[in-house]
Design a protein that fits this description.
The chain is of the alpha/beta class and 235 residues long. It has a single domain, classed as Rossmann fold (3-Layer(aba) Sandwich), CATH 3.40.50.1820. It has 11 helices and 9 strands. A hairpin with a 5-residue loop joins strand 5 and strand 6. The longest helix is centred in the first third of the chain and has 13 residues. The protein is globular, with a radius of gyration of 16 Å. It starts with 6 loop residues before the first strand and ends with a helix. It holds the Pfam family Abhydrolase_6.
Protein backbone atom coordinates (compact mmCIF):
# COMPACT_ATOMS: atom_id res chain seq x y z
CA UNK A 1 0.00 0.00 0.00
CA UNK A 2 1.38 3.35 -1.06
CA UNK A 3 2.03 5.39 2.12
CA UNK A 4 1.81 8.64 0.14
CA UNK A 5 -1.81 8.05 -0.80
CA UNK A 6 -4.34 9.71 1.50
CA UNK A 7 -6.50 7.55 3.72
CA UNK A 8 -10.07 7.34 2.46
CA UNK A 9 -12.51 7.63 5.37
CA UNK A 10 -16.05 6.56 4.48
CA UNK A 11 -19.05 7.75 6.50
CA UNK A 12 -22.40 6.09 5.85
CA UNK A 13 -25.71 7.87 6.15
CA UNK A 14 -29.07 7.10 7.73
CA UNK A 15 -30.89 3.83 7.00
CA UNK A 16 -27.57 2.18 6.11
CA UNK A 17 -24.30 0.96 7.53
CA UNK A 18 -20.74 0.57 6.26
CA UNK A 19 -21.46 -2.78 4.58
CA UNK A 20 -22.91 -0.87 1.64
CA UNK A 21 -19.41 0.41 0.86
CA UNK A 22 -18.09 -3.12 0.21
CA UNK A 23 -17.69 -2.81 -3.57
CA UNK A 24 -15.95 0.56 -3.46
CA UNK A 25 -13.74 -0.54 -0.54
CA UNK A 26 -12.51 -3.50 -2.57
CA UNK A 27 -11.68 -1.23 -5.52
CA UNK A 28 -9.98 1.44 -3.43
CA UNK A 29 -7.86 -1.11 -1.55
CA UNK A 30 -6.94 -2.79 -4.84
CA UNK A 31 -5.75 0.61 -6.06
CA UNK A 32 -3.50 0.96 -3.02
CA UNK A 33 -5.55 3.30 -0.83
CA UNK A 34 -5.70 2.93 2.94
CA UNK A 35 -9.42 2.86 3.80
CA UNK A 36 -11.36 3.35 7.03
CA UNK A 37 -15.12 2.84 7.33
CA UNK A 38 -16.26 5.08 10.15
CA UNK A 39 -19.18 4.03 12.35
CA UNK A 40 -21.88 6.70 12.30
CA UNK A 41 -24.14 6.37 15.38
CA UNK A 42 -27.08 8.24 13.77
CA UNK A 43 -28.11 9.63 17.16
CA UNK A 44 -27.56 13.37 16.71
CA UNK A 45 -25.62 15.55 14.28
CA UNK A 46 -23.27 17.12 16.85
CA UNK A 47 -22.58 13.85 18.65
CA UNK A 48 -22.18 11.87 15.42
CA UNK A 49 -19.72 14.46 14.09
CA UNK A 50 -17.79 14.36 17.37
CA UNK A 51 -17.35 10.60 17.05
CA UNK A 52 -16.08 10.86 13.47
CA UNK A 53 -13.85 13.81 14.44
CA UNK A 54 -12.25 11.67 17.15
CA UNK A 55 -11.62 8.87 14.66
CA UNK A 56 -9.93 11.29 12.25
CA UNK A 57 -7.47 12.25 14.98
CA UNK A 58 -6.22 8.66 14.91
CA UNK A 59 -5.53 8.68 11.15
CA UNK A 60 -1.99 9.65 10.21
CA UNK A 61 -1.26 11.59 7.04
CA UNK A 62 -3.66 13.19 4.57
CA UNK A 63 -7.34 12.23 4.52
CA UNK A 64 -10.12 12.25 1.95
CA UNK A 65 -13.41 12.26 3.83
CA UNK A 66 -16.42 10.75 2.05
CA UNK A 67 -20.03 11.02 3.21
CA UNK A 68 -23.26 9.57 1.86
CA UNK A 69 -26.63 11.24 2.48
CA UNK A 70 -26.85 12.29 6.17
CA UNK A 71 -23.16 11.36 6.35
CA UNK A 72 -22.51 14.49 4.29
CA UNK A 73 -23.78 16.64 7.14
CA UNK A 74 -21.59 14.68 9.54
CA UNK A 75 -18.37 15.11 7.54
CA UNK A 76 -19.09 18.82 7.03
CA UNK A 77 -18.88 19.24 10.79
CA UNK A 78 -16.29 16.58 11.60
CA UNK A 79 -13.62 17.94 9.22
CA UNK A 80 -13.82 21.53 10.45
CA UNK A 81 -10.42 22.66 11.71
CA UNK A 82 -8.63 19.44 10.73
CA UNK A 83 -5.61 20.38 8.56
CA UNK A 84 -5.14 16.77 7.39
CA UNK A 85 -8.42 16.56 5.48
CA UNK A 86 -7.41 17.16 1.88
CA UNK A 87 -10.85 16.89 0.25
CA UNK A 88 -14.52 16.24 1.00
CA UNK A 89 -16.52 13.92 -1.24
CA UNK A 90 -20.31 14.04 -1.08
CA UNK A 91 -22.29 11.08 -2.43
CA UNK A 92 -25.98 11.97 -2.90
CA UNK A 93 -25.43 13.91 0.28
CA UNK A 94 -26.65 16.66 2.53
CA UNK A 95 -24.25 19.61 2.58
CA UNK A 96 -25.78 21.95 5.17
CA UNK A 97 -24.91 25.52 5.89
CA UNK A 98 -24.88 26.63 9.51
CA UNK A 99 -28.44 26.53 10.83
CA UNK A 100 -29.74 24.04 8.26
CA UNK A 101 -30.80 20.47 9.00
CA UNK A 102 -31.26 17.43 6.78
CA UNK A 103 -34.99 17.76 7.25
CA UNK A 104 -35.12 21.42 6.26
CA UNK A 105 -32.99 20.81 3.16
CA UNK A 106 -35.01 17.85 1.90
CA UNK A 107 -38.18 19.91 2.28
CA UNK A 108 -36.71 22.83 0.31
CA UNK A 109 -37.39 21.22 -3.08
CA UNK A 110 -40.14 18.91 -4.38
CA UNK A 111 -39.59 15.29 -5.34
CA UNK A 112 -38.65 13.46 -2.14
CA UNK A 113 -40.57 10.37 -1.01
CA UNK A 114 -38.90 10.34 2.40
CA UNK A 115 -41.97 11.53 4.30
CA UNK A 116 -44.13 8.68 3.05
CA UNK A 117 -41.28 6.14 3.32
CA UNK A 118 -40.42 6.43 7.00
CA UNK A 119 -41.60 4.05 9.68
CA UNK A 120 -41.21 5.42 13.26
CA UNK A 121 -40.39 3.32 16.30
CA UNK A 122 -40.88 4.97 19.70
CA UNK A 123 -37.94 4.73 22.13
CA UNK A 124 -38.05 4.57 25.92
CA UNK A 125 -36.45 8.02 26.29
CA UNK A 126 -39.20 9.70 24.30
CA UNK A 127 -37.17 9.85 21.10
CA UNK A 128 -38.18 8.19 17.85
CA UNK A 129 -36.08 5.92 15.66
CA UNK A 130 -36.85 6.20 11.96
CA UNK A 131 -36.56 3.37 9.44
CA UNK A 132 -37.35 3.24 5.74
CA UNK A 133 -40.33 0.91 5.46
CA UNK A 134 -38.92 -2.28 3.88
CA UNK A 135 -41.96 -2.42 1.59
CA UNK A 136 -40.81 0.72 -0.23
CA UNK A 137 -37.05 0.52 0.35
CA UNK A 138 -36.35 -0.81 -3.14
CA UNK A 139 -38.42 1.64 -5.23
CA UNK A 140 -37.83 4.72 -3.08
CA UNK A 141 -34.28 4.28 -1.77
CA UNK A 142 -32.51 1.88 -4.13
CA UNK A 143 -34.36 1.84 -7.43
CA UNK A 144 -31.36 0.84 -9.58
CA UNK A 145 -30.09 -1.83 -7.19
CA UNK A 146 -31.15 -5.45 -7.88
CA UNK A 147 -34.29 -6.27 -5.90
CA UNK A 148 -32.66 -9.14 -3.99
CA UNK A 149 -29.80 -6.89 -2.88
CA UNK A 150 -32.15 -4.06 -1.96
CA UNK A 151 -34.09 -6.48 0.22
CA UNK A 152 -30.92 -7.27 2.17
CA UNK A 153 -30.11 -3.58 2.62
CA UNK A 154 -33.67 -2.97 3.81
CA UNK A 155 -33.38 -5.72 6.40
CA UNK A 156 -29.96 -4.63 7.66
CA UNK A 157 -30.61 -0.86 7.66
CA UNK A 158 -29.77 1.13 10.80
CA UNK A 159 -32.24 3.74 12.00
CA UNK A 160 -31.59 7.41 12.59
CA UNK A 161 -33.32 9.34 15.31
CA UNK A 162 -35.80 11.99 14.31
CA UNK A 163 -33.70 14.41 16.36
CA UNK A 164 -30.59 13.70 14.26
CA UNK A 165 -32.34 14.46 10.99
CA UNK A 166 -33.90 17.60 12.44
CA UNK A 167 -30.82 18.93 14.24
CA UNK A 168 -29.40 22.10 12.65
CA UNK A 169 -25.72 22.29 11.78
CA UNK A 170 -23.67 24.56 14.02
CA UNK A 171 -20.40 26.35 13.36
CA UNK A 172 -18.80 27.08 10.01
CA UNK A 173 -18.93 23.89 7.93
CA UNK A 174 -15.69 22.47 6.55
CA UNK A 175 -16.80 22.85 2.93
CA UNK A 176 -16.14 26.58 3.19
CA UNK A 177 -12.40 25.89 3.35
CA UNK A 178 -11.78 22.37 1.99
CA UNK A 179 -12.10 21.39 -1.70
CA UNK A 180 -15.34 19.52 -2.44
CA UNK A 181 -16.44 16.88 -4.94
CA UNK A 182 -20.10 15.99 -5.44
CA UNK A 183 -21.64 12.88 -6.99
CA UNK A 184 -25.31 13.64 -7.63
CA UNK A 185 -27.81 10.85 -8.18
CA UNK A 186 -30.02 11.93 -11.05
CA UNK A 187 -33.02 9.74 -10.17
CA UNK A 188 -32.87 10.20 -6.40
CA UNK A 189 -36.24 9.92 -4.65
CA UNK A 190 -34.86 10.66 -1.19
CA UNK A 191 -32.80 13.85 -1.67
CA UNK A 192 -34.14 15.42 -4.88
CA UNK A 193 -31.44 16.09 -7.48
CA UNK A 194 -32.39 19.78 -7.44
CA UNK A 195 -31.63 19.90 -3.72
CA UNK A 196 -28.32 18.11 -4.22
CA UNK A 197 -27.31 20.54 -6.97
CA UNK A 198 -28.33 23.55 -4.89
CA UNK A 199 -26.12 22.41 -2.02
CA UNK A 200 -23.25 21.40 -4.30
CA UNK A 201 -23.14 24.62 -6.30
CA UNK A 202 -22.77 26.87 -3.30
CA UNK A 203 -19.62 24.99 -2.23
CA UNK A 204 -17.90 25.88 -5.50
CA UNK A 205 -16.81 22.27 -5.77
CA UNK A 206 -16.69 19.84 -8.68
CA UNK A 207 -20.05 18.32 -9.61
CA UNK A 208 -20.80 15.10 -11.47
CA UNK A 209 -24.39 14.04 -12.14
CA UNK A 210 -25.10 10.36 -12.76
CA UNK A 211 -28.36 10.14 -14.67
CA UNK A 212 -30.69 7.34 -13.57
CA UNK A 213 -28.85 6.73 -10.30
CA UNK A 214 -30.82 6.13 -7.12
CA UNK A 215 -30.02 7.33 -3.62
CA UNK A 216 -27.78 4.27 -3.20
CA UNK A 217 -25.47 5.53 -5.94
CA UNK A 218 -22.35 4.20 -4.21
CA UNK A 219 -23.84 0.68 -4.43
CA UNK A 220 -25.29 0.84 -7.93
CA UNK A 221 -22.52 2.89 -9.54
CA UNK A 222 -19.27 1.87 -7.80
CA UNK A 223 -17.13 2.79 -10.82
CA UNK A 224 -18.28 6.41 -10.90
CA UNK A 225 -18.02 6.61 -7.12
CA UNK A 226 -14.44 5.33 -6.97
CA UNK A 227 -13.38 7.51 -9.89
CA UNK A 228 -14.54 10.65 -8.11
CA UNK A 229 -12.97 9.63 -4.80
CA UNK A 230 -9.66 8.93 -6.51
CA UNK A 231 -9.83 12.27 -8.30
CA UNK A 232 -10.33 13.96 -4.93
CA UNK A 233 -7.38 11.99 -3.56
CA UNK A 234 -5.13 13.71 -6.10
CA UNK A 235 -6.08 17.12 -4.66
Amino acid sequence: MDPEKPTIVLVHGAFADSSGFAAIIRRLVSDGHPVVAAPNPLRGLASDAAQVRALLQDVSGPIVLVGHSYGGAVISAAAAGNPHVRALVYLAAFVPEEGESAQSLVEKFPGSTIGESLKPVALADGQVDLYVDPRVFHPHFAGDVPAADAQVYAITQRPATGAALGEPATGVPAWHSIPCYHLISGADLIIPPMAQEFMARRTGGEIQVVEGASHMIFVSRPGATVALIEKAAQQ
